[in-house]
Write the structure tokens for this entry.
Amino acid sequence: MNHLDELRVRLSVCDEQILECLLKRNAIVEDIMKYKESHNMQIIQPEQEKRQKQKLEKELEGMNHAKEILDIFNRITYNSKKIQARHLFHYNIVLIGFMGSGKSTISDYLSTMFAMETVEMDQIISQREGMSISDIFAVYGEEYFRNLETSLLIEMQAKNNVVISCGGGTPMRDNNVVEMKKNGRVVLLTASPETIYHRVKDSHDRPLLENNKNVSFITELMEKRREKYEAAADVIIQTDGKNELEVCEELVQRLMELEEKSGRA
Ligand SMILES: Nc1ncnc2c1ncn2[C@@H]1O[C@H](COP(=O)(O)OP(=O)(O)OP(=O)(O)O)[C@@H](O)[C@H]1O
Ligand SMILES: O=C(O)C1=C[C@@H](O)[C@@H](O)[C@H](O)C1
Ligand SMILES: [Mg+2]
């Protein structure tokens, strides 16, 4: 065997060791999930992730190829999150709720914590149509827009493990609710009109609220929608006074309970 062949053999021994370690690591990730579940522990622990990252960065300080190695560990963390997400959710998470209830915020946070794909329905529809949502309403009417929402929800049934952030009015059409439930668990985020007002008052990207940014308009529209929202929901999370982590943790726990119940039924 010449020297090059020898080096290649040594390289493939390394790869085998890495593979073995990764398999072991993934099994540990699954065991940690099971431990947290069986001990009713908090599932999302961003502080732990931060500590692990800091420890690694310290160990890598001044090392050869530190940047490349860190990149690999970031991928490992990302894929561990995917494993956790697949363990927890074999379905899509469909977020519904009034404008400003936090659908996009919670969707982003879940995506960071579990490396889940996110779908912003308004954004996708607007991109595909090449115009803003208000222009779609103005040019083609609401019926046309709701049809696009229905088609997108049907398209999402081919996927799982996606967080879908619906438009504020998506659950107002019964057929949309039928479609979102086929492969999704529907989570309703709520907040008081006062909280919603404070969250949306400085933004200008909600056409329905643009000239109606006041608590009484929000209260009235919210009341009109309440029945449909609540009927669509598998889980309802009240978000007033809770930060993103608290809302997401409650969401995960409630979805786990739902699975447990449906498993037992
Ligand atoms: N739990 C929360 N605590 C404090 N602020 C929040 C919370 N959730 C969302 N926010 C803030 O409220 C604002 C609106 O949130 P977001 O855009 O996520 O709502 P949305 O439901 O997606 O609204 P829309 O239906 O218009 O898309 C944002 O500025 C966000 O930072
Ligand atoms: O609440 C609503 O009816 C809407 C909310 C937005 O997300 C958009 O989907 C659209 O402006 C309609
Ligand atoms: Mg949003």
The beta strands are 92-97, 117-120, 162-165, 184-190, 235-238. The first strand starts at residue 92 and ends at 97.
